[in-house]
Design goal:
CATH class: Mainly Beta
Number of helices: 4
Largest sheet: 10 strands, mixed
Distance between the termini: 53 Å
Number of strands: 17
CATH topology: Jelly Rolls
Structural class: mainly beta
Helix content: under 10%
Number of domains: 1
Mean pLDDT: 89
Strand content: 35-45%
Protein backbone atom coordinates (compact mmCIF):
# COMPACT_ATOMS: atom_id res chain seq x y z
CA UNK A 1 0.00 0.00 0.00
CA UNK A 2 1.33 3.41 -0.96
CA UNK A 3 1.60 5.76 1.99
CA UNK A 4 2.02 9.55 1.92
CA UNK A 5 3.26 11.30 5.03
CA UNK A 6 1.19 14.20 6.29
CA UNK A 7 3.89 16.79 5.64
CA UNK A 8 4.21 15.65 2.02
CA UNK A 9 0.46 15.87 1.58
CA UNK A 10 0.51 19.49 2.64
CA UNK A 11 3.20 20.24 0.05
CA UNK A 12 1.20 18.56 -2.70
CA UNK A 13 -2.02 20.36 -1.96
CA UNK A 14 -0.23 23.69 -2.04
CA UNK A 15 2.01 23.10 -5.02
CA UNK A 16 -0.24 21.29 -7.49
CA UNK A 17 -3.05 22.96 -9.46
CA UNK A 18 -6.55 21.58 -9.71
CA UNK A 19 -7.80 19.77 -12.79
CA UNK A 20 -9.65 22.85 -13.98
CA UNK A 21 -6.50 24.94 -13.68
CA UNK A 22 -4.35 22.58 -15.73
CA UNK A 23 -6.26 22.68 -19.01
CA UNK A 24 -3.59 23.33 -21.59
CA UNK A 25 -0.77 23.48 -19.04
CA UNK A 26 2.17 21.18 -18.38
CA UNK A 27 5.00 20.14 -20.64
CA UNK A 28 4.61 20.68 -23.51
CA UNK A 29 1.84 23.27 -23.26
CA UNK A 30 -1.13 22.74 -25.56
CA UNK A 31 -4.15 25.02 -25.26
CA UNK A 32 -6.39 24.34 -28.24
CA UNK A 33 -6.55 22.48 -31.52
CA UNK A 34 -5.54 25.71 -33.26
CA UNK A 35 -2.09 25.57 -31.66
CA UNK A 36 0.79 24.37 -33.81
CA UNK A 37 1.38 20.99 -32.17
CA UNK A 38 2.62 19.11 -35.20
CA UNK A 39 4.60 19.46 -38.40
CA UNK A 40 3.29 21.70 -41.17
CA UNK A 41 3.23 18.53 -43.31
CA UNK A 42 0.14 17.36 -41.39
CA UNK A 43 -3.48 18.46 -41.28
CA UNK A 44 -5.99 17.81 -38.49
CA UNK A 45 -8.60 15.30 -39.71
CA UNK A 46 -10.41 14.36 -36.47
CA UNK A 47 -10.32 15.59 -32.89
CA UNK A 48 -12.15 15.15 -29.62
CA UNK A 49 -11.58 18.11 -27.30
CA UNK A 50 -14.06 17.08 -24.57
CA UNK A 51 -15.36 20.64 -24.32
CA UNK A 52 -19.04 19.89 -23.61
CA UNK A 53 -19.86 18.89 -20.03
CA UNK A 54 -21.83 15.71 -19.47
CA UNK A 55 -21.54 12.36 -21.24
CA UNK A 56 -19.24 11.74 -24.17
CA UNK A 57 -20.84 12.09 -27.60
CA UNK A 58 -22.73 8.95 -28.58
CA UNK A 59 -22.27 9.98 -32.20
CA UNK A 60 -18.51 9.56 -31.74
CA UNK A 61 -18.01 6.97 -28.99
CA UNK A 62 -19.29 3.54 -27.96
CA UNK A 63 -19.25 2.14 -24.42
CA UNK A 64 -18.20 -1.37 -23.51
CA UNK A 65 -20.39 -3.11 -20.96
CA UNK A 66 -19.75 -5.66 -18.22
CA UNK A 67 -16.73 -7.90 -17.74
CA UNK A 68 -14.89 -7.86 -21.06
CA UNK A 69 -11.27 -9.14 -21.23
CA UNK A 70 -8.06 -10.22 -19.48
CA UNK A 71 -9.84 -11.39 -16.28
CA UNK A 72 -9.95 -7.74 -15.21
CA UNK A 73 -11.81 -6.86 -12.03
CA UNK A 74 -13.83 -3.90 -13.26
CA UNK A 75 -17.37 -3.98 -14.57
CA UNK A 76 -17.50 -1.52 -17.47
CA UNK A 77 -20.45 0.89 -17.49
CA UNK A 78 -21.30 4.34 -18.84
CA UNK A 79 -21.66 6.08 -15.49
CA UNK A 80 -17.91 6.07 -14.82
CA UNK A 81 -17.03 8.36 -17.75
CA UNK A 82 -17.94 12.04 -17.66
CA UNK A 83 -16.81 15.30 -19.25
CA UNK A 84 -16.29 18.38 -17.10
CA UNK A 85 -14.23 21.57 -17.48
CA UNK A 86 -12.80 20.41 -20.80
CA UNK A 87 -11.64 16.96 -19.70
CA UNK A 88 -12.89 13.42 -19.99
CA UNK A 89 -12.51 11.61 -16.68
CA UNK A 90 -12.74 7.83 -16.50
CA UNK A 91 -13.15 6.94 -12.85
CA UNK A 92 -12.70 3.51 -11.29
CA UNK A 93 -14.80 3.04 -8.15
CA UNK A 94 -15.33 0.36 -5.55
CA UNK A 95 -18.61 -1.50 -5.80
CA UNK A 96 -20.49 -4.28 -4.06
CA UNK A 97 -23.39 -5.68 -6.03
CA UNK A 98 -24.35 -8.98 -7.64
CA UNK A 99 -23.09 -9.95 -11.08
CA UNK A 100 -26.29 -10.18 -13.17
CA UNK A 101 -24.67 -12.84 -15.40
CA UNK A 102 -23.49 -15.07 -12.53
CA UNK A 103 -24.01 -18.78 -12.99
CA UNK A 104 -22.86 -21.36 -10.45
CA UNK A 105 -20.10 -23.60 -11.83
CA UNK A 106 -19.80 -21.52 -14.99
CA UNK A 107 -16.60 -22.05 -16.97
CA UNK A 108 -16.63 -18.52 -18.41
CA UNK A 109 -14.88 -16.26 -15.89
CA UNK A 110 -17.33 -13.46 -16.71
CA UNK A 111 -20.18 -15.61 -15.38
CA UNK A 112 -18.25 -17.36 -12.60
CA UNK A 113 -17.86 -14.21 -10.50
CA UNK A 114 -20.75 -13.80 -8.08
CA UNK A 115 -20.13 -10.11 -7.43
CA UNK A 116 -19.02 -6.84 -9.02
CA UNK A 117 -16.33 -5.36 -6.76
CA UNK A 118 -15.35 -2.32 -8.84
CA UNK A 119 -16.56 -0.38 -11.87
CA UNK A 120 -14.93 1.69 -14.62
CA UNK A 121 -15.45 2.74 -18.26
CA UNK A 122 -14.07 1.90 -21.67
CA UNK A 123 -14.94 3.90 -24.79
CA UNK A 124 -14.09 3.36 -28.46
CA UNK A 125 -14.75 4.73 -31.93
CA UNK A 126 -15.51 1.40 -33.63
CA UNK A 127 -17.85 1.94 -36.58
CA UNK A 128 -17.71 5.72 -36.06
CA UNK A 129 -14.11 6.68 -36.81
CA UNK A 130 -11.04 4.81 -37.95
CA UNK A 131 -7.97 5.85 -39.88
CA UNK A 132 -5.04 4.47 -41.85
CA UNK A 133 -1.65 6.13 -41.28
CA UNK A 134 -1.07 9.51 -39.72
CA UNK A 135 -0.24 11.02 -36.37
CA UNK A 136 -2.33 10.61 -33.22
CA UNK A 137 -1.80 12.73 -30.10
CA UNK A 138 -3.46 12.21 -26.74
CA UNK A 139 -2.88 14.50 -23.76
CA UNK A 140 -3.66 12.70 -20.53
CA UNK A 141 -2.90 12.24 -16.86
CA UNK A 142 -2.80 8.65 -15.68
CA UNK A 143 -3.43 7.04 -12.28
CA UNK A 144 -0.62 5.02 -10.74
CA UNK A 145 -2.41 3.26 -7.88
CA UNK A 146 -2.07 -0.46 -7.22
CA UNK A 147 -4.05 -2.33 -9.85
CA UNK A 148 -4.37 0.63 -12.26
CA UNK A 149 -4.19 -0.28 -15.95
CA UNK A 150 -5.05 2.77 -18.09
CA UNK A 151 -4.59 2.55 -21.84
CA UNK A 152 -4.65 4.40 -25.16
CA UNK A 153 -4.86 1.84 -27.96
CA UNK A 154 -6.11 0.94 -31.42
CA UNK A 155 -7.56 -2.15 -33.08
CA UNK A 156 -8.24 -3.17 -36.66
CA UNK A 157 -11.84 -3.31 -37.82
CA UNK A 158 -12.44 -6.69 -39.42
CA UNK A 159 -10.36 -9.72 -38.46
CA UNK A 160 -10.46 -11.42 -35.02
CA UNK A 161 -7.81 -10.45 -32.48
CA UNK A 162 -4.84 -10.43 -32.84
CA UNK A 163 -4.93 -10.85 -36.62
CA UNK A 164 -6.65 -7.46 -36.80
CA UNK A 165 -3.57 -5.83 -35.24
CA UNK A 166 -3.29 -3.98 -31.93
CA UNK A 167 -1.33 -0.78 -31.25
CA UNK A 168 -0.84 0.23 -27.61
CA UNK A 169 0.13 3.87 -27.68
CA UNK A 170 0.07 3.79 -23.88
CA UNK A 171 -0.36 1.18 -21.21
CA UNK A 172 0.56 1.63 -17.57
CA UNK A 173 0.79 -1.24 -15.10
CA UNK A 174 3.23 -3.02 -12.83
CA UNK A 175 5.37 -5.20 -15.10
CA UNK A 176 7.03 -7.86 -12.94
CA UNK A 177 6.11 -5.71 -9.96
CA UNK A 178 7.72 -2.56 -11.39
CA UNK A 179 5.45 0.40 -12.28
CA UNK A 180 6.01 0.85 -16.02
CA UNK A 181 4.91 2.63 -19.19
CA UNK A 182 4.46 0.30 -22.16
CA UNK A 183 4.37 0.94 -25.92
CA UNK A 184 3.42 -2.14 -27.95
CA UNK A 185 2.08 -3.67 -31.12
CA UNK A 186 0.63 -7.15 -31.64
CA UNK A 187 -0.34 -9.24 -34.65
CA UNK A 188 -1.31 -12.82 -35.43
CA UNK A 189 0.77 -15.93 -34.75
CA UNK A 190 0.15 -19.36 -36.29
CA UNK A 191 -2.52 -20.25 -33.69
CA UNK A 192 -5.86 -18.44 -33.38
CA UNK A 193 -5.94 -15.84 -30.58
CA UNK A 194 -2.18 -16.10 -30.03
CA UNK A 195 -0.27 -12.86 -30.57
CA UNK A 196 3.24 -11.92 -31.61
CA UNK A 197 4.26 -8.88 -29.57
CA UNK A 198 6.71 -6.06 -30.09
CA UNK A 199 6.76 -4.48 -26.63
CA UNK A 200 8.91 -1.84 -25.00
CA UNK A 201 8.66 -1.48 -21.23
CA UNK A 202 10.02 1.69 -19.62
CA UNK A 203 10.11 1.80 -15.80
CA UNK A 204 8.16 4.73 -14.39
CA UNK A 205 11.28 5.78 -12.50
CA UNK A 206 12.81 6.76 -15.85
CA UNK A 207 10.38 9.69 -15.79
CA UNK A 208 9.94 10.33 -12.06
CA UNK A 209 13.69 10.69 -11.50
CA UNK A 210 13.51 13.75 -13.74
CA UNK A 211 10.27 15.02 -12.22
CA UNK A 212 9.02 13.74 -8.82
CA UNK A 213 5.54 15.07 -9.66
CA UNK A 214 5.41 13.31 -13.04
CA UNK A 215 2.29 11.29 -12.26
CA UNK A 216 0.36 14.37 -11.17
CA UNK A 217 0.93 16.11 -14.51
CA UNK A 218 -0.51 15.81 -18.00
CA UNK A 219 1.66 14.30 -20.74
CA UNK A 220 1.38 13.86 -24.50
CA UNK A 221 1.44 10.40 -26.03
CA UNK A 222 2.00 10.41 -29.79
CA UNK A 223 1.94 7.78 -32.50
CA UNK A 224 3.44 8.39 -35.95
CA UNK A 225 2.25 5.69 -38.36
CA UNK A 226 3.12 5.33 -42.04
CA UNK A 227 3.59 2.53 -44.58
CA UNK A 228 6.90 1.42 -43.07
CA UNK A 229 6.97 2.16 -39.33
CA UNK A 230 4.89 2.82 -36.24
CA UNK A 231 6.73 5.08 -33.80
CA UNK A 232 5.38 5.76 -30.32
CA UNK A 233 6.49 8.78 -28.29
CA UNK A 234 5.91 10.17 -24.82
CA UNK A 235 6.53 13.92 -24.51
CA UNK A 236 8.60 13.67 -27.72
CA UNK A 237 10.78 10.84 -26.36
CA UNK A 238 10.74 7.80 -28.65
CA UNK A 239 9.58 4.74 -26.70
CA UNK A 240 9.21 2.16 -29.46
CA UNK A 241 9.76 1.84 -33.21
CA UNK A 242 7.94 -1.00 -34.98
CA UNK A 243 9.16 -2.03 -38.43
CA UNK A 244 6.06 -2.97 -40.43
CA UNK A 245 8.05 -5.33 -42.64
CA UNK A 246 8.02 -7.67 -39.59
CA UNK A 247 4.31 -7.51 -38.72
CA UNK A 248 2.74 -9.89 -41.24
CA UNK A 249 0.34 -12.38 -39.63
CA UNK A 250 1.76 -15.90 -39.43
CA UNK A 251 -1.71 -17.33 -40.00
CA UNK A 252 -2.89 -18.50 -43.41
CA UNK A 253 -4.33 -15.09 -44.28
CA UNK A 254 -0.80 -13.63 -44.53
CA UNK A 255 -2.18 -10.13 -43.97
CA UNK A 256 -0.25 -7.21 -42.54
CA UNK A 257 -2.90 -5.70 -40.24
CA UNK A 258 -1.11 -2.37 -39.99
CA UNK A 259 -1.86 -1.58 -43.60
CA UNK A 260 -5.56 -1.30 -42.78
CA UNK A 261 -7.58 1.28 -40.77
CA UNK A 262 -7.81 1.09 -36.99
CA UNK A 263 -10.21 2.58 -34.44
CA UNK A 264 -9.38 4.20 -31.06
CA UNK A 265 -9.98 2.90 -27.53
CA UNK A 266 -9.58 4.67 -24.16
CA UNK A 267 -10.11 2.71 -20.96
CA UNK A 268 -9.15 2.30 -17.33
CA UNK A 269 -8.90 -1.37 -16.41
CA UNK A 270 -8.26 -2.66 -12.88
CA UNK A 271 -6.26 -5.76 -11.95
CA UNK A 272 -6.61 -8.75 -14.24
CA UNK A 273 -3.84 -10.48 -16.15
CA UNK A 274 -1.53 -7.46 -16.18
CA UNK A 275 -2.95 -4.93 -13.70
CA UNK A 276 -1.78 -6.97 -10.73
CA UNK A 277 -2.81 -6.64 -7.10
CA UNK A 278 -5.39 -4.01 -6.27
CA UNK A 279 -5.47 -1.83 -3.16
CA UNK A 280 -8.87 -0.53 -2.08
CA UNK A 281 -7.06 2.51 -0.65
CA UNK A 282 -6.46 3.67 -4.25
CA UNK A 283 -10.15 4.09 -5.08
CA UNK A 284 -11.47 6.16 -6.65
CA UNK A 285 -8.84 6.16 -9.43
CA UNK A 286 -9.09 8.88 -12.07
CA UNK A 287 -7.77 8.82 -15.62
CA UNK A 288 -8.07 12.31 -17.15
CA UNK A 289 -7.92 12.92 -20.92
CA UNK A 290 -7.62 16.44 -22.30
CA UNK A 291 -7.92 15.64 -26.00
CA UNK A 292 -7.50 13.09 -28.77
CA UNK A 293 -6.30 14.42 -32.15
CA UNK A 294 -5.59 12.66 -35.42
CA UNK A 295 -3.55 14.23 -38.21
CA UNK A 296 -2.71 12.99 -41.68
CA UNK A 297 -0.18 14.06 -44.26
CA UNK A 298 -1.25 16.86 -46.55
CA UNK A 299 -1.76 15.97 -50.21
Amino acid sequence: MKRIFFTTFILLTVALPSLAQTKGKGQPQVVSKDDVTTSSDYKLVWSEEFDTDGKVSEARWNFEQGFVRNHELQWYQEDNAFVKNGFLTIEAREANRPNPHYRANAKDWRKARPAITCTSSSINTQGKFSFLYGRMEVRARIPDGYGAWPAIWLLGNNLPWPSNGEIDVMEYYRSNGVPSILANAAWGDTQPYKAIWNSKVTPLTHFTKKDPFWTSRFHIWRMDWDETYIRIYLDDELLNEIDLSTTVNKSVDGINPFHAPQYILLNLAIGGDNGGDVSSDCFPMRYDIDYVRVYQKKD
